[in-house]
Amino acid sequence: MSILDVLSAALLVTGAFFFITGTVGLARFPDLYCRLHAITKADNLGLGLTVLGLLFHARDGLEAFKLVLVWLFVLTASACVCFLVANDALSRERSSADEEA
After folding, report:
1. Cα atoms found within 13 Å of the Cα of residue 15, Cβ hemisphere only
2. What is the chain's mean pLDDT, rounded?
3. Residue 1's pLDDT is what?
4. Who has the most CB within 10 Å: 18, 69, 76, 96?
């Protein structure tokens, strides 16, 4: 077992830890905004560490490029979806407050 295999395994385990932490935060935090923060930050970091761990096993530069490209697409999509969900929740809170007034 080489040093790269050990480093790769450590990155994969750490990435899995952040995925689990984000899931626990999603289940335990009190409101939508805290949950969104937990799931987007932890999952993006978890995926980044997972991709970094997999890069050590990429056969060529094209495969490594594809892994990084997938991570960047997920990072962008996650940020956009988080913004849209938070913006929708905020507008619903404002409209319900206007109806009560």
Report:
1. 17
2. 91
3. 79
4. 18
